Amino acid sequence: MQQVGEVISLFISNKELSQREKVNSIELDTNGIINDKFYAKDKNRSVLITSIDSYKMAKDKNIDLEYGLLGENLLIDYNPYSLTPKSQLLIGEVVLEIVQNCTICKSLTKIDNKLPKLLKDDRGVFAKVIKSGLISDGDKIYLKKELAIS
Questions:
Q1: How far is residue 128's CA from residue 42's CA, in Å, rounded to a whole number?
Q2: Which terminus of the chain is more solvent-facing, meaning fewer CB atoms within 10 Å of its CB: N or C?
């Protein structure tokens, strides 16, 4: 298995807070992220993975964003946007399967009107949990199974 990157930051959606909460680790099962407000809502959209590249793209256009503002659960230093559905990543004890690229939501316009268009194909990918476990800050990311775009 090829190591492709590592986890920079982790976030959960807390029911009491409007913004994502930064945490040191997250526990996942096949229903998603335990203690996240979206837990067991949609297994195919249970984890949002965003690359640090998205934040760099915004910064290059003079849009300064705090980590977590793109709605991600996992911020990583690897760009997964070219991976096709069914590609798998091993992160900590967890196996995640890529389901689809993240669709752009209008809430990004609250941050900056240019953001949705800028990050149209680079906001993140949704993944579902194949193997339960714990993911922590700094965990290595391995490409377990890659189905590249042909």
A1: 9
A2: C
pTM to 2 decimals? 0.91
Q: Is the pLDDT reported for residue 106 higher than 90?
A: no
Say how far apart CA 30 and CA 32 lie, in whole Å.
6
Indicate whether 126 belongs to any domain: yes
Name which residue leads in pLDDT, 130 or 116.
130
CB contact at 8 A, 150 and 103: no
Listed in order, strand segments (DSSP E) in the chain are: 2-13, 20-23, 25-29, 32-33, 47-51, 74-76, 88-91, 94-101, 125-131, 133-136, 140-145
CA dist 49 and 52 (Å) reads 10
**CATH at residue 61:** 2.40.33.20
Q: Tokens at residue 23, please?
A: 């945490």
What are the phi and psi torsion angles at 109 (to 5°)? -70, -20
Rounded Cα distance, 28 and 34, in Å: 6
The answer to the question of residue 150 being in a domain is no
- Asked if 59 contacts 111 with a C-beta cutoff of 8 angstroms, the reply is no
